[in-house]
Design goal:
about 475 residues, about 30% helix, 3 domains, alpha/beta, Arc Repressor Mutant, subunit A, FAD/NAD(P)-binding domain, five-stranded parallel sheet, globular
């Protein structure tokens, strides 16, 4: 039976592993967390599980059913706390996949290398947060971090919290916060009514297949009303203030291009701010494998990428939510195991791909955000690079290359390797170069080492005897 390697244990990866197994493949599912579920189904460990899990998660029973099926199938190996750090390209076949298993900060992580017949990438997405003056203050976090604390630890990020940014994700974050005892003083959606109506209001009958989303929305509206949380559109946090931590924020009304409207600024006292401006796919491994990437990983109707034997599913191929991720994962797993795309999953994918398009139209970032970023605003927090540093580098060097500008300013060269600031850095640089634009846009997503690792772990990669299962130079196998 062929071996299918699935990287990512969120909804798409879980669906892919189960679909491949149903078609007879031996499956290895690699997950960086302690348990499957990804960020969407992030939960307390089994030793501390409570009945509250159901209230904090949509589709919780479906997750439990899938998790039990994965754990009880002898043909599926789950490798948890495992981090894929590199892939080796090969002609006309899937790449070799290298991982380290064990706590990220621990010593003696176990190295493993896989030579799969088919590889399914389901690495998901990460939050994007637009910079603003003061966003580096303690107490300012991503909305996802706040939700992770609420779901995974039952801890609120603060007592008086403002949730801001763009996209439907702000609402479940608000619900998680109020359920963990925080007072949410407001939810601010940057998109205005005209942008929202263009995305969600056009041809509403085509949303019939997504009626479950309406039920979710109704639940969030109930939380807004019952906890008296104000919801404002066309509004954003444009600055945070405080000494040792955030104490207040300035919010302002936004024009349709997201530029702040002068004279509309107000101050709100807070002790925590949770900000999210949508999500960007985690494309490091896909890029390293040689897949064609155009913001998202490009796939065909069977979820196949441009690299033979490599498939992609979930947020990696476009931000569309859990239903789209599950459908794409089911298709990718079935095809990876030599089967045909399941017709039901194909129909669901079509419905929720349209939903994804509406999501981007209704909540997509507009370029006016750069007008709230003055030259003193830190953009790259790892290397303490300001927007002024980026703009002056373009002006002084005349360069249009992301690589050279990164080396000049050190933006994106810190511990996060541009995961937090990369897209903002590129957009500020692109604006500074004018109509000519950047020569190598998207370069900040290119990370040959996908995760941090120790020099000793990297050195071990050069010794084949340290990598059980790795093909040796004669084509055989070590270990």
């Amino acid at each position: 039976m062929p071996e299918v390697l699935v990287v990512g244990g969120g909804p798409a990866g879980m669906a892919a592993a189960l679909a491949a197994r149903r078609r007879g493949a031996r499956v290895v599912l690699v997950e960086s967390g302690d348990d499957v579920g990804g960020q969407y189904w992030r939960h307390l460990p089994a030793s501390r599980a409570t009945d509250a899990e159901r209230a904090l998660h949509h589709g919780w029973e479906r997750f439990r059913t899938m998790r039990v099926a994965l754990a009880n199938d002898p043909g599926i190996e789950i490798v948890s706390s495992a981090h894929v750090w590199s892939v080796d390209r090969r002609d006309d076949q899937p790449p070799l996949v290298h991982l380290l298993a064990g706590p990220p900060d621990g010593q003696g992580r176990a190295a493993r290398t896989f030579d799969p017949a088919a590889l399914v990438l389901a690495t998901g997405a990460q939050e994007r947060t637009l910079p603003f003056p003061g966003w580096e203050l303690p107490g300012v976090s991503t909305a996802g971090a706040a939700q992770a604390l609420a779901k995974g630890e039952r801890v609120a990020v603060g007592r008086r919290v403002l949730v801001a940014g763009s996209g439907p994700f702000l609402l479940p974050v608000m619900s998680s916060l109020v359920r963990t005892g925080a007072r949410v003083v407001g939810v601010l959606e940057a998109a205005g009514w005209s942008q929202l109506s263009r995305g969600w209001g056009a041809r509403p009958w085509r949303l019939v297949g997504t009626q479950a989303k309406g039920s979710e929305l109704a639940g969030y509206v109930r939380d807004l009303i019952s906890h008296r949380v104000p919801y404002r559109v066309g509004t954003a946090v444009v600055a945070a203030h405080g000494t040792d931590r955030v104490e207040a924020v300035t919010v302002a009304r936004l024009a349709p291009d997201w530029a702040p409207v002068p004279g509309t600024e107000t101050t709100i006292e807070v002790d925590a701010v949770c900000v999210s401006h949508g999500f960007v796919p985690r494309t490091e491994l896909a890029i390293a494998a040689g897949c064609v990437v155009d913001g998202v990983v490009v796939v065909d109707a069977h979820q196949r990428t441009s690299v033979p034997g490599v498939l992609a599913a979930g947020e990696l191929t476009g931000i569309g939510g859990v239903d789209l991720a599950l459908a794409e994962g089911e298709i990718a797993g079935a095809v990876a195991a030599g089967g045909a795309p399941p017709p039901g999953a194909v129909r669901t994918r079509a419905v929720f791909r349209e939903f994804a398009g509406r999501l981007a139209a209704a909540h997509g970032i507009r370029p006016g955000w750069q007008s709230w970023v003055d030259d003193t605003t830190t953009v790259c927090r790892c290397e303490d690079v300001t927007a002024g540093d980026l703009r002056s580098a373009v002006r002084l060097t005349g360069s249009r290359g992301v690589r050279s500008l990164k080396l000049t300013t050190r933006a994106g060269l810190g511990i996060c390797q541009g995961r937090t600031c990369g897209q903002a850095v590129e957009e500020i640089l692109a604006s500074a170069t004018g109509p000519a634009g950047l020569l190598d846009a998207g370069r900040t997503a290119n990370r040959p080492l996908a995760v941090p690792l120790r020099l000793g772990e990297l050195a071990a990669a050069a010794d084949p005897t340290q990598w059980p299962g790795r093909p040796d130079r004669r084509g055989g196998r070590t270990g």
